[in-house]
Amino acid sequence: MTRMALRFSHAHWLLAAGLAALPLAAAPAQMATQSPAVVPGAKAVTVERIKVHSAAIEGNLEGNSADRDVIVVLPPDYAKDRTRRYPVVYALHGYSIGADQWTKEIHVPASVEGAFARGVPPMILVFPDSRTMHNGSMYSSSQTVGDFERFISHDLIAAIDARYRTIPRRESRGLAGHSMGGYGTARIGMKHADMYGAIYMMSPCCLSPRMMARPEGTDEKLLTSLSSPAESAKLNWGQRAMLAASAAWSPDPKNPPLYLDLPIKDGKVRDDVMAKWIANTPLAFVDQYVGPLRRYRAIALDVGSQDGLKADAQALHDTLDRYGIAHSFQIYDGDHVNRIGVRFQEQVLPFFGRSLVTK
Fold first, then answer.
1. Which of 168, 230, 245, 294 is the most buried (most CB within 10 A)?
2. Which of helix, strand or coil describes residue 251?
3. Could you give the 3-state DSSP secondary structure of residue 73?
4. Cα-flanking dihedrals φ and ψ of residue 13, to 5°?
5. Residue 29: pLDDT over 60
6. Phi, psi values for residue 5, rounded to 5°
7. What is the pLDDT at residue 9?
8. Which of 27-41, 203-217, 242-256 is predicted most confidently?
9. Sign of the C-alpha dihedral, residues 312, 146, 172, 350?
10. Dist CA 173 CA 161 (whole Å)
11. Where does CATH 3.40.50.1820 sit in the chain?
C-alpha cells in the first residue's frame, strides 16, 4: 500500500480537492450576505437574461443542457450611445449555486450601479450558469459533464461578442470568480491567457488536493448505488460535491450509469484516480503556465483570514512571487463569504476598471 493509501484509507472522505475546506455554512444553496453601501445618484443598469448554446457541452453523458442561462448586465448609457463599445467581465459562480443565486449574493445590480457611480468605467458584466446534474461543472473539460472550460473561454465569448457592442480583444476582457468560480478563473486563466487581459480569483477553492477527514464520511455504497445521474438530487451537499469533482476530473465513459470513477474504492484510496485529480489542481500545473501568466495586464487574488482555503491561496501567491509574476494578494478579515457583495463593488469592479482597455 502506498503512503497516500496508508494515510487516508481509514479517513472519512468528503471531497479531496479543496471544497472540503469550505466552512459547513457554505453548503446551503443561498447565502445571506452583506449589502454594499448605497451610492447616491447611481444610475440604473439594464439586466438581460439570455440563452447561449455551447457546442462544447453538447453530447455530455450526464445530460446537462448545452443551452445555458446567462445573465448580462449592461451599463446605464448602453442604449443611448449606440456607437460605443465596452470591455466585458465574465464572473463565475461557486459550487451548488447558479448565476441567479450568485448575482443575489453579490447584490447585482446594486453593487454594479454603485461601482459605476463611484467612477468605475462602464463595462458589460456576464454571469454564465454552469450548474450541472451534480451541482457544479468545476469549469473543467469532461466528456461526462461537458467541456465547460471551452464554454467559458470560447463559446460564451463568441456569443456575447456577436450579440453586444463589446471591445472584442483580450485586453478588454476580464475573468473573475468566487470559490469554485475562483478555481475556474485560475484554471481557465492559466490555460487561455490569449482570451483575457485581467483575472481576479476570489477565495478560490480546489487549488490543491486537500484531503480532509470529516466525521460524516462518504457513503461509498450509497454513491455507487445510484441508477442515474439525476438521482444525486437526493444526496447531501458533500456527497454531491464528491460526484461533481469525480465527474469533472475522473470521468469514465465506460462506467455507467454515472460515467465517473470515485477516488475511493472498497474503502481505499485509488492512486490512479487521485493522480487525475491532482493533475487538475492549479498548484500542480501553474509552473507550466508562467509564460501565459506574464501576459496579463493584471492579476488579483484574495482570501479570508478565517477561510479554510487561505493556505492554498497563500501558496499560489508565493508561487507567483517566486516567478516574479506581478499580481495583488489580499487576505481580508472574514470567512469564505464575508462581505462578498461589498468586495465585488469596492475591489473587484474597480480592479477591472483600472486594468482593462476601454477603447
1. 245
2. strand
3. strand
4. -90, 140
5. no
6. -65, -40
7. 31
8. 242-256
9. negative
10. 11
11. 24-210+282-355
User: If one looks up domain 24-210+282-355 in CATH, what number appears?
Assistant: 3.40.50.1820
Cα 146-210-264 angle, rounded to 5 deg: 65
All three cell numbers of 227: 441508477
- As a whole number of Å, the end-to-end CA separation of the chain is 59
Q: Any idea which residue has 517566486 for its cell?
A: 322
Between CA 185 and CA 351 the distance in angstroms is 15
Q: What is the DSSP letter of 115?
A: H
Reported as type and span, the H/E element at residue 72 is strand 67-74
User: Cα–Cα distance between 204 and 152 in angstroms, integer?
Assistant: 17
Closest CA to 30 of 120, 94, 122: 94
pLDDT attached to residue 213: 34
Name every residue whose Cβ is closer than 8 Å to that of residue 311 and which is 6 or more positions away in sequence.
none
Cell numbers for 103: 448575482
Check residue 140 and give left, alpha or beta (phi > 0: left; psi -120 to 50: alpha). Answer: beta
Instruction: Give start and end residues of each alpha helix (H) in 164-249.
Output: 180-191, 220-224, 237-249
120 Cβ contact list (under 8 Å, min separation 6): 349, 350, 352, 353
Radius of gyration of the chain (CA): 20
Instruction: Convert the pLDDT of each residue in 112-125 to its tens digit.
Output: 999 999 999 999 99
Collapsing DSSP to helix, strand or coil, 122 comes out as coil
Instruction: Provide mean pLDDT across the span 244-262.
Output: 96
Can you tell me the distance from the alpha carbon of 329 to that of 316, in angstroms, rounded to the nearest whole number? Answer: 10
**Closest C-alpha among 350, 271, 285, 286 to residue 323:** 286
Instruction: Spell out the residues 6+ positions from residue 184 whose beta carbon is closer than 8 angstroms to its own.
Output: 92, 130, 138, 139, 148, 149, 152, 177
Helix (H, G, I), strand (E, B) or coil at 306: coil
What is the C-alpha separation between 267 and 346, in angstroms, rounded? 47
Cα gap 226→9, rounded to integer Å: 23
In the chain, the amino acid numbered 126 is V
Whole-structure pTM value = 0.92
